[in-house]
Amino acid sequence: MPTVRMTDRFVAAAKVGEAIRLGEFYDEVTSGLVLRVTRGAKSWSFFYTTPATGTRARVGLGHYPQTSLAAARARAIEAAELVENGEDPRAAFAARARSAATIAHLVESYLALHVRARKRRRGSKIERELRSASKIERRLRKNVLPVIGDVRLADLHRRDITRVTDALLRRGSPSEANHVFWDLRTMFRWAVKRGDLDHSPTGDMDKPGDVVTRDRVLTDHEIRALWNGLPEWLVGSRTCARAQCARILRLCLVTGQRLGEVAGMRRTELDLQRRLWRLPPERVKNNTAHSVPLSDLALTLIGEALDDAGADSELVFTGRDGKAISPILLAGLILGSRKPTKAYPAGRCPVKDWSAHDLRRTALTEMAGLGVAPIVLGHVANHRTTTRAGVTLGVYSQYTYDKEKREALDLWAERLRAIVSGSKAKIISMRPR
Questions:
Q1: In terms of residue numbers, what domain contains 43?
Q2: Within this chain, do residues 26 and 127 fall inside the same structural domain, yes or no?
Q3: pLDDT tens readout for residues 246-292
Q4: 55, 160, 196, 414: which has the fewest Cβ within 10 Å?
């Protein structure tokens, strides 16, 4: 390729023909400086002979227009001086970049090159993996960057990790502290493999928080209060339709399924004639397809939701904007309903310290109290640790317990109707006499 006396105008106008993938223009002014032009980008390089081996090599100096002609010439002159002094510019520039890079730079690289890219390659798991990727990004941006984002990688110390997790522990969020710690540990291990870090500062550190497993189960009085009061208590969002939010939470209690699975319910998952809700693997926490028999009470809630969503909506539960209702939004509404205000010193909701997952736990506990066998409960909850435990259940027995699941959920729905109405309806237990 030609050697030219480069100017800013020449660099801006430089291009290659359709038949040429890469064009290289050598600068007459600065020896070794090359403008490399492709159909989509322009970049600067410096070609030289390595002092150690005497072979030809190239080091990148930046992309145009972020790196101007003047800046590229200055970097090329610096690279030439390094060669004269017996140093390899590639090693010198890489060491300088590592020392100048910060946690913020590393986070952006990690998200772009690993988290999002890896999640896009997961095939059938893509929806669940993308949700996971968004959670990782949210945690890093919310909890890490504001605290240690400006810390240089060369100065990174274990105390910086502790600063991040201690802030979460002070907020009373040990579970979030553990998640962020594991996010950082994974990111640093990735950086070590790439060569961005020499070692991970989290190597021998323990997880920061001890998470206490919740065992909250709602009483009959609390169930009745929540069921009847939810639409009025869930306030505070412009996009949230209170009736739809209340139906989601009620359906969590009726079916014993997870909040995210219920909130994301789609028309294509429903077989209303067979009274079934079929969850595909990518919508389930353990990536295992799951079918949920629908009781009359569940069908009533779903029918009301479909009417509100409209015939054109793929989603069963939609907000005022026609979009899906986020589980995070629902969790925030629950917290808001318990928050004291001037008008409601004890909070709008009189039921204390409850969460959406407590509804699932309550449903499964009530079914157990009605005599539902543990193996059936495991299938209702889609817990593989129960349904596929050991060789017998995991390999030999392929029975799905669909009939037993339907009986259990119908029995619980009748019990729930009695609780909500305050009646003394008699529910016959599934326990053998």
A1: 3-99
A2: no
A3: 999 999 999 999 999 999 999 999 999 999 999 998 888 888 899 99
A4: 55
